[in-house]
Amino acid sequence: MAYQERLVKTFEYIAKNLKATHTVMAIATVKGICRPTFTMMDKTEKPETKKYTALREGITEAVAIPVYFICGELAGFGAKILRNVQDSVNIKKAKKLAEKTGDIIDLEKIKQSPEVTKKIANNLRFLGVCTAALLVIPSVCSVAIKPIVDEIIKPPKNPDLPKIPPANPVQQIKPIQRPSINSFLGSHGMKVGGV
Q: What would the pLDDT profile of 147-189 be if each residue is shown by its tens digit?
């Protein structure tokens, strides 16, 4: 029974403290390991193609992990800023109301609860991760991957290409030959009046 209770407590802790940032970073890590591995295991592709594809997939996920973390945590940090702004607005409104009515206000009751702030932060982290997946990671990868791959897999300097003779810049165009009328009418020509 003790083992089951520990397992339940572990899953409860994960469920209460799980962030979208951690989830996508774990997924990107697994993809960064498995996709290049499975690509290199493919026996139907050429070795050069496999090497290039595996390297490209690995670099993409290596870029994705820190970008997910940065975008998610920056967005989550926005919850604290929003809380401070909302609290200051609420306090100003409460002070104005207290001046009019003469009531005493408890500032702690006016402030946003930590549970609400945590929910807002988790939602903002999710939006930050979505933004990273849709915009930031493709932008960074389109700029960074090609130079990195070209640096790691250097193309040969002087490849032995078959020599192709240069094309003749001016080609002779044959004039269109029009068929003669005799070829349509036969060798006798056209007879008028049946004679």
A: 888 888 876 665 565 666 666 666 666 777 776 655 555 555 5
Contacts of 20 (CB under 8 A, 6+ apart): 72, 122, 125, 126, 128, 129
Residue 77: CB atoms within 10 Å: 14
- Joined together, the tokens standing for residue 58 give 């690995």
Spatial CA neighbour of 67 closest among 136, 126, 123: 136
C-alpha 31/C-alpha 35 separation (Å) is 5
- Model confidence pLDDT, tens digit, residues 55-98: 999 999 999 999 999 999 899 888 888 888 877 777 777 777 77
- Determine the longest span between alpha carbons in the chain, in angstroms: 130
Confidence (pTM): 0.64
Looking up tokens 């990107």, which residue turns up? 28
| Helix H or strand E encompassing 17 | helix 2-17
Q: Which one, of 109, 116, 115, 110, lies nearest residue 87 by Cα?
A: 110
Residues in the chain: 195
Distance CA 135, CA 149 (A): 21
Measured between alpha carbons, how far is 131 from 80 in angstroms, rounded to an integer? 19
